[in-house]
Amino acid sequence: MSEIFWVTAFLDVPAASHPAALEFWQGVTGYRVSEPRGEHLEFASLVPDGADDHLRVQRLEDGPPRIHLDLHVPDPRVAADRAAALGAREAVPDQGSDRGYVVMRSPGGFVFCFVSHPASRRARPVEWADGGRSLVDQVCLDMPEETYDEEAAFWESVTGWERRPSTGSPEFERLNPPAEQPLQFLLQRLGEPFGEVRAHLDLGCEGREAETRRHVRLGAVVESVGEWWTVLRDPAGAAYCITDHPPR
User: Are 211 and 30 contacting, i.e. CB atoms less than 8 angstroms apart?
Assistant: First the structure.
């Protein structure tokens, strides 16, 4: 059913840590920060050179940091109705059709939006002074055991992208997006039995140790180091991963 032509990831950050988080992610990506916008100047985009943005930062009044997704489609109202038939629900009652977006929750409670604004030029990896390259190019949907099967089936249906196992790690599956999409989708079956679905960002790189050191200098904290990825937390406390997958 997919008419999704672009995906944007929003880093939703509490007000107290918003300035530090915005500066951190600007440093991580190497992108410029757009002028703030929104009713309360709460939105900013991280804009790559010569490409359309796929990462944005939103200042929250309170609550923990989180990720939500914008799915760009020709008609948000039509897409929302189709998603509702697959098990999603509207997160904001009486949204109407004149806002240009519709806020939804997936069957497992994950917040996402259908929006219509255009984008098509995918960012290239950034090359750093040490010769390494990196790019935030993946969102991982973290799904508790109880909701995994329903949630994974929902995202496969709502995107229309091929779902396949991830090599070497039985707890992961992938959705295979078209080449023009800026973000890959990784589906993770968590060890915990219950809870809401959430998400984190993954950064592909060449040279994980050097990339990790760069992030720590910018203000990240290393939480754990695995065989294929390193888990860190940004200045707002949000978890994300630096992985060994080559940046697209």
Answer: no
Mark 37-59 as b/e (b = at least 16 C-beta within 10 Å). Answer: eeeeebbbbbbbeeebbbbbbeb
Whole-angstrom distance, CA of residue 68 vs CA of residue 91: 12
Distance, CA of 106 to CA of 104 (rounded, Å): 7
Q: Which residue has the tokens 């914008």?
A: 70
Radius of gyration of the chain (CA): 17
- Global pTM reads 0.95
pLDDT computed for residue 60 by the predictor: 95
Joined together, the tokens standing for residue 91 give 């997160």
Tokens found for residue 190: 């968590």
Q: Is residue 156 helix, strand or coil? A: helix
CA distances, 118 to each of 5, 150, 162, 181 (Å):
8, 30, 24, 13
Amino acid, res. 68: H
CA distance 70 to 246: 24
Rounded distance between C-alpha atoms, residue 220 and residue 150, angstroms = 34
CA distances from 111 to 85, 126, 152, 199, 234 (A): 17, 29, 15, 10, 21
Domains of the chain, start order:
6-115 (3.10.180.10), 126-243 (3.10.180.10)
* Tens of pLDDT, residues 90-110: 988 765 556 789 999 999 999
Block residue for tokens 């992108």: 31
